[in-house]
Design goal:
Order of helices and strands: HEEEEEH
Helix content: 10-25%
Strand order of the largest sheet: 1-2-3-4-5
Number of helices: 2
Largest sheet: 5 strands, antiparallel
Number of strands: 5
Length: 103
Amino acid sequence: MSAQTSDPAGYALSGLAAELRSRGVDATEDGDRGLVLVPGAPAGHSSALLRPHRGGLWWWIRRPVQDGVPPAPSGIPLAPAHRTSHVAGRIARAPEGVPGGAV
């Protein structure tokens, strides 16, 4: 389902998915859950979520669960929602095999 662009969250979801695709990263929007799925991203990223943080809407990065590593309950806060280009750049150029999944 494509996010509606008439609201800030929908606009951010659409913007991040488009920015990732322009950088050669497979991305699909899930407006119902507030995330952009990025299964083809470097270093095994699984999704970018929009969630509240520091009094505003922020992008959070979620990683696939790995054997022996406890999953982060909500991910890692990365940047405010309006910084979609910054987030896409960080996802697209994340180094392979970074311990702990740092972006």
